[in-house]
User: What shape does this take?
Amino acid sequence: APLIEIKDISFEYEETKALDNISMKVEKGDFLAILGPNGSGKSTLLKIMLGLIKPSKGSIKLFGVDSKNFKHREWIGYVSQKSNSFNSGFPATVKEVVAGGLAKKAGLFRRLPKTVDEDVLEAMKSVGMEAFLDRSISELSGGQQQRVFIARALVAKPKMLILDEPTVGIDHQNVQAFYDMLAALNREKNITLVMVTHDVDTVTDRISHVACLNQTIHFHGFKEQFQT
Ligand code: ADP
Ligand code: ADP
Assistant: This one.
């Protein structure tokens, strides 16, 4: 079954129609970019995938199961756009931040798994940040912080990651390397990736699929396309 299957969903915020009859699929192994102008419903679509809001019509299946009955939210990691707003003065080390992704999984009052150090190291290696474990998160660049937040999501061993505009806050010259890291995660660690992005030109040769909300974006180079 597809990891995500959305059929004919619509969503309204009071008067605003945010999504109108959208259908799409995410298959295992995909690296999907969701594109669209501001206000086209990208964030709303992610919130529906994450089960944070319910569509007013249509259906959504996660791993073949109706989202109402889906019991494995930990299979779907999420890195929000605002997660890199830890500002200066925040005292945590990178290791603590990444281990926080396990605390959430274990529940507040349960013990962390004994393998926590190994799991944190493995997650940090997969984002190319293993040299930074003992650094303070606040002294890292925007791009390094974003990699740490991805490691924080990966440490719980999700099958897929949903990323909301992951390159916001990354210096222009580091964006290519960041997408190379995501492409390697996708190919080598078999993490299915869904991301909202505006980096149309940069992502074309890394992604496997694209979904466009509103049909105002046209670009070349992707391998397959479905219109939502
Ligand atoms: P995008 O992420 O593509 O910018 P959004 O999903 O954030 O689009 O928004 C889609 C539409 O819904 C926009 O017109 C936006 O103004 C509106 N919208 C988003 N969130 C809310 C909200 N909480 N209340 C009312 N309108 C909203
Ligand atoms: P994003 O960049 O992820 O689309 P925004 O910065 O546009 O998010 O919006 C931040 C929050 O404000 C979101 O939770 C969104 O639902 C809400 N929001 C967006 N547009 C509106 C709106 N027109 N009215 C009320 N809330 C909105």
Notes: Residues 43, 81, 164 surround adenosine-5'-diphosphate (ligand 2) (CB under 6 Å).
